[in-house]
Amino acid sequence: MKTHWLGYALVTTLLWGVWGAFAGRPVQNGFPETLVYAVWALTMIPPALFALARIDWRVRRDGPAIAHGLAIGLLGAGGQMILFHAVKEGPTYLIFPLISLSPVITIALSYAFLRERTGAMGVTGIVLALCALPLFDYAPEQGGVAYGWWFVLALGVLVAWGLQAYFIKRANAIMDAESIFFYMTVSALAFIPVALAMTDFSQPINYGLDGPWLAAITQVLNAVGALTLVYAFRHGKALVVSPLVNAGAPLLTTIVSVAMAATLPNGFKLAGIGLSLAAALFLALQPDEPSAA
């Protein structure tokens, strides 16, 4: 039913939109991004316990379930590790608009292998969302940019996160959403030692309330949003859910950030806001259609 997937998708958009507006604060306050990752992985535990309680702690442990679950978790966490390297090598104003196009991978795979289809309004919404995504983080600077290793890393993140969303949808056909999230949590926790190894502990680190504790508060929104996203994929089509959430969350982040700063966004962000609003309207109003046989 549309009310199911759309409700979960909107909750994810709300949670990730607010999270995005505050996610950078701990880093600005001197708490490294790698440690923020470790905090995020730990915040995955409470929603995972909630999900497991819903299925009486019966996690799917057959081969296909484990393979899909770990693929989803490793693609998500591994993509984050690659992103840490990418932002050290290249310009973030180009990296983030590039990886924001990961729904292109999800849409293409869902169309080709899951035979998902949508109507004219849905197609229009998808196109508008994909056009809007790069605009929220795009901030051109003067001078040329050398395309090197950072570009390859950014493409790796794009592919990893696009594949992750596709596999979430695919896994929902063979296992329950709660088991999927359990494996996502296990994978996220498994990468904590990697994040710690990448942390430069020789530099001053803020361990105060506006460091790890602020990170924990904001990352809870991220973790719960990940759970509701799994439910959205369970009830809705990946080629619709993915662009809706990925365009809607930055839209809300921009609105919240602009409201707090009391300043107008630049022209690129304004264009992204307009396109995202139109995309969300088309995607929400498109009647559900069965997938192709």
TrEMBL record:
This is EamA domain-containing protein. SUPFAM superfamilies: Multidrug resistance efflux transporter EmrE. GO terms for cellular component: membrane. Keywords: Membrane, Transmembrane, Transmembrane helix. Residues 5-133, 149-283 form the EamA domain. InterPro entries: EamA_dom, EmrE-like. The chain crosses the membrane at residues 36-53, 65-87, 93-114, 119-136, 148-168, 180-199, 211-232, 244-262. It comes from Massilia timonae CCUG 45783.
